[in-house]
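[Protein data]
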Amino acid sequence: MQISCIIVGRNPIKNRQISELRNDTATERKLTRRRHAGTPSAAREVLPRPARFGNVPVEAEPKGWDRRQGFQKHYPSVSLPTQIIERVKLGNEEPHEPNRLIWGDNLHIMRQISNNSVDLIYIDPPFFSGRQYNVIWGDNNELRSFDDIWEGGLDGYLIWLNARLYEMKRILKPTGSIYVHCDWHASHYIKVEMDKIFGYENMIDQIVWHYGTPSGGRSSGKKPVKVHDNLLVYAVNYAKHTYNKQFTPYSDKYVKDWFRHTDEDGRMYRTRSRKGVIVRQYLDESPGVPLSNVWSDIMQLYGSAGWFAKMGTDERIGYPTQKPEALVERIIKASSNEGDVVADMFVGGGTFASVA
């Protein structure tokens, strides 16, 4: 499986420019030894068992971790030279570091990125769906496909993902956070592994993206209709992570029920009591409803049975698992600031790059 990696932002990633990496095996070996020195104790520090679990047996280390070699046992380091194939603009007049799109195995790329250099990571990895996805590409109608089928079953999938999550934690800044997009196929297993890698106490939230309404096309099978994905959100250090409070608009019903008054200028307002004083809260000065962990105001771009009707501008490119720009934009605004380095380690249809 070919995995691409994208890193977007205004501040250059420190120390090592990916486009200038040397194929220096000895240097890579030294770096590997340094990174994984003392891994058993490091694992104990990173993966403490939550006290409230009591005597429930919980494995201390993520699946696939080797006490001597870390994830190198399954995925040895490979020092790869890179070359510039094409320069592209990612929302800027002039392309510049670190706005770059990298094609290749994201694990090998991440292993060559400096510690504590990224502010936010969003990934939309394979979901362990057991499916093959096809897309007709380009003017020549070329058929391209990728598999979400794992020879090693669930264990193989989790080891593959854990090796990458481990590197993502390493490159995140102490104020950084990560969003992992998944669904019912493996979300509960992924959470257990992320508790081990990032720490149970560093889970920020589980966000439910309710992306549509039940329809006849989705109702096959003897089960409720699936209409949501999950976003597992973790911080490197909870309470130190970046978070900018977001708001959603009031519903028409809420406005009608609560903003019942209009002043002489035609502005709608409601009255509230503040320390015994009646004050006016104007609708046009109110930010809206604080964002919850259930996002139901963003529709998915298409369903398995065909495209949904257009919602505003048409951003669809035909990629089978493409996510809406509004979804990614909300994540970036909530968990990063202007000028931060943000990264999508799987790219997919390129929505993250388009928004960032």
The domain at 4-246+291-355 is CATH 3.40.50.150 (Rossmann fold).
